[in-house]
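$ ./design --mode recover --in tokens.txt
reading tokens...
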């Protein structure tokens, strides 16, 4: 994927920062050699790090009487990052030091009637309070995370505005990802996977995440839009807004599964929420109700089709599913092996908790400082 000029500069700055933090103390000449950056870039980027309090500069005399040399020293022992997570109307702020040790956590509950402006004001105020609580430490990065399956009103989109505000306010990296991105990032680290990984997460909508070489691909939106309309082998009950009936979106979302269940069971049952409906469907399947079992097995078969397509189309090394029902997972594994002739990896995203996402949020913020 082609990098923009802005991302190229950011990548160079990260290389410089990682080299200094990794060495502890390093000369300007050694830094040029290690990063491949020219003299002017090293000076310019080092000045930024000095201004942020991330490094210190000192002059060392040459014992042989020659010219003195400039050395940069890491101040990583007093550096920390903050992770901000939005789940429904709950905001969690977590601060961790350079070794990923969490030393502060706080939670905000945004009132349901509050608008985006009020939400942003409260989060920015909480960040400011957190910073003032640790005046002797330097904030070096912020990671924002939002949970797609826990979205609430306009707050989910409001995090984008927070992201832009923080990027303008601070000179260090500020990231924005979904919980699915961070789950996959964490799995890549936990299993030491450097290949291309793709995670499919059907829910209220269809979500995709991709990680390669332990880097999150943040440019999946256009591809995801096309994939939602990829044609599977089965027809849905209703036509998609694109006019077709075999779209992934119309077959694998929770609403589509519940609609088909009501049709097969010959009922018109209303559901208070999608999560409540899915829980009911899985409970009925455990009781061996024919319509419920049929729906979940269909879902497994169709998911296998979608995952096989993703593996080929994205040239992925591994494809994973984020879906908690055992029937769906079992059927998906069986169907995938039949379709592709390959077995899916044993590890899965099943059972990942909000605490795991919190840990991943901190890790990814710190990884921008020391990859």
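writing sequence...
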């Amino acid at each position: 994927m082609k990098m923009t000029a802005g991302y190229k500069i950011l990548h160079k700055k990260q290389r410089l920062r990682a080299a200094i933090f990794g060495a502890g103390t390093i000369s300007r000449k050694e830094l040029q050699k290690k990063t491949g950056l020219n003299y002017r870039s090293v000076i310019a980027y080092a000045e930024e790090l000095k201004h942020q309090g991330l490094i210190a500069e000192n002059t060392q005399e040459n014992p042989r009487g020659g010219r003195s040399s400039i050395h940069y020293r890491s101040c990583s022992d007093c550096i920390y990052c903050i992770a901000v997570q939005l789940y429904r109307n709950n905001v969690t702020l977590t601060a961790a030091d350079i070794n990923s040790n969490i030393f502060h956590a706080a939670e905000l509950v945004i009132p349901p009637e509050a608008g985006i402006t009020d939400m942003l004001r409260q989060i920015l105020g909480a960040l400011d309070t957190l910073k003032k609580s640790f005046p002797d430490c330097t904030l070096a990065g912020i990671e924002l995370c939002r949970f797609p399956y826990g979205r609430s009103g306009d707050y989910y989109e409001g995090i984008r505005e927070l992201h832009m505000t923080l990027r303008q306010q601070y000179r260090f990296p500020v990231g924005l990802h979904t919980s699915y991105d961070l789950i996959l990032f964490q799995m890549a680290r936990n299993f030491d996977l450097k290949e291309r990984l793709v995670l499919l997460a059907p829910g209220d909508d269809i979500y995709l995440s991709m990680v390669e070489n332990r880097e999150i691909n943040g440019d999946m939106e256009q591809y995801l839009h096309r994939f939602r309309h990829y044609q599977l082998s089965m027809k849905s009950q209703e036509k998609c807004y694109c006019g077709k009936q075999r779209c992934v979106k119309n077959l694998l979302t929770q609403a589509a599964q519940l609609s088909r269940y009501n049709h097969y069971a010959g009922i018109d049952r209303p559901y208070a929420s999608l999560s409540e409906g899915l829980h009911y469907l899985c409970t009925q399947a455990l009781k061996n109700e024919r319509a419920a079992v049929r729906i979940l097995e269909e879902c497994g078969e169709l998911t296998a089709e979608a995952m096989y397509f993703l593996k080929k189309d994205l040239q992925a090394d591994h494809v994973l599913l984020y879906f908690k029902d055992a029937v769906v997972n079992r059927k998906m594994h069986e169907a995938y092996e039949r379709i592709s002739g390959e077995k899916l990896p044993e590890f899965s995203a099943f059972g990942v908790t909000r605490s795991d996402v919190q840990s991943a949020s901190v890790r990814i913020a710190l990884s921008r400082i020391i990859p």
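exit 0
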